[in-house]
């Protein structure tokens, strides 16, 4: 085989690898959609803005429901000594979240691959949620009755109508709002 032929074969193999990776990625992104909400990470600038506008007591147990790559928990871990738990139905984003958290050397954050509908987050002090309303709707019972202590709920992008009477504040950005509720 000449060196040109060898390069040609290598190029075809590389194309296959890219195609197969894209296919696997698409399948797992579809998993997020089917779970109830597509994967879109909260912008870092929005996370910073949210954290400037809320008070997170140290020692809080924070869950990010549908955590994606875990960026919210990593931002919180950097500024507060908290315990963070991220839950996501998509194994690829959980893999990325664990990888990024490991290289950031953060030991107070863990990630669980699972469906939030069946997950137990009753011991949370704070919930961070950035998901489609139809999925948030299904958490009503867990959030309102299945909790062990007062709970702050931070909902990025969407109001939670069943928490109306617990509404505390709205954090405004030009493109997106965040709604904070406090249930005691
Ligand atoms: C809009 S993204 C938010 C990601 C992350 N919270 C952030 O703000 O950067 C929604 C995430 O919810 C996840 N998801 C969708 N349905 C889910 C379900 N039933 N259980 C757990 N996670 C789910 C998706 O895989 C996706 O990563």
3D structure, described in words:
- The structure is a single chain.
- Helices cover 41% and strands 21% of the residues.
- The relative contact order is 0.14.
- It has 184 residues and is α/β, with parallel strands linked by helices.
- Helix 2 packs across helix 3.
- It folds into two domains: 35 residues; 140 residues, Rossmann fold, CATH 3.40.50.150.
- The mean pLDDT is 93.
- Strand 2, helix 4 and strand 3 form a beta-alpha-beta unit.
- S-adenosylmethionine (SAM) binds next to helix 1, helix 3 and strand 2.
Q: What is the count of structural domains? A: 2
Low-confidence stretches: none
Q: With helices defined by DSSP (H or I, 4 residues minimum), what is the helix count?
A: 6
Gross morphology: elongated
Q: Would you state the CATH class of the largest domain?
A: Alpha Beta
Q: Which molecules other than protein and nucleic acid are bound? A: S-adenosylmethionine
Instruction: Give the class from helix and strand content and strand pairing.
Output: alpha/beta
Spatial arrangement of strands, main beta sheet: 3-2-1-4-5-7-6
Mean pLDDT, nearest integer? 93
Order of helices and strands: HHEHEHEEHHEEE
Instruction: Note the main sheet.
Output: 7 strands, mixed
Rg over CA atoms: 19 Å
Which range does the strand content fall in? 15-25%
CATH topology of the largest domain: Rossmann fold
Task: Give the helix proportion (percent range).
Answer: 40-55%
What is the second-level CATH architecture of the largest domain? 3-Layer(aba) Sandwich
Report the end-to-end length measured between terminal Cα atoms: 74 Å
- What would CATH call the homologous superfamily of the largest domain? Vaccinia Virus protein VP39
Please give the number of β-strands. 7
